[in-house]
Amino acid sequence: MAAETVHIVEDDPALRDSLAFLLETSGFTVRLYETGTELLERLAMPAAGCILTDIRMPGIDGLELLRRLREARHAVPIVVMTGHGDVPLAVEAMKRGACDFIEKPFGDEVLLRALRTALSPGRTGIAADPAVQDFLHRVETLSERERQVLDRLVAGATSKEIGRALGISPRTVEIYRAKLMAKTQAASVQDLVRRAVLAGLA
Prior knowledge:
The chain is α/β, with parallel strands linked by helices and 202 residues long. It has helices at 13-25, 36-42, 62-71, 87-95, 108-119, 130-139, 144-154, 159-166, 170-184, 189-198; strands spanning 5-9, 29-33, 50-54, 78-82, 100-103.
């Protein structure tokens, strides 16, 4: 069976080379691009494999790259890499058609799992995914206040901003956040947001 192709768009040479090494040793065929413009110029139609792109890049950033790819009718799955605190950008990327996002720095397995999921034949049926359905059932067990905190976390608000909006202290927000993460079994706030976006709650 031919190796799946991953098109990596990353302006940091060290990270680009590191990602290429990891993916090639994991059995993927890798194509490297320094900028979104370079990818758009070189990507064949129809493109094979999937795209792994940073969201913050000079020139065409990840969001603009997504827009142009969809405008050009590219159906290739796209996984975006985000920096810490880029939750609103990640949510926007998924609304524009990215199939997943991962936060830097990430472990090798987190990246490989995201890419394999993106490349899996059943990827299009995300709403029917048992993991997504399980998350939705868990969200239904949240109290009204916990759901309010979840909605604002997904929107990218900080604990201070959530506290101000709900008329509670940031410390109380942290308590609600810990409770809703336990109920939804999310490993981190980023994981919680990712699941919420995949489930269509953003």
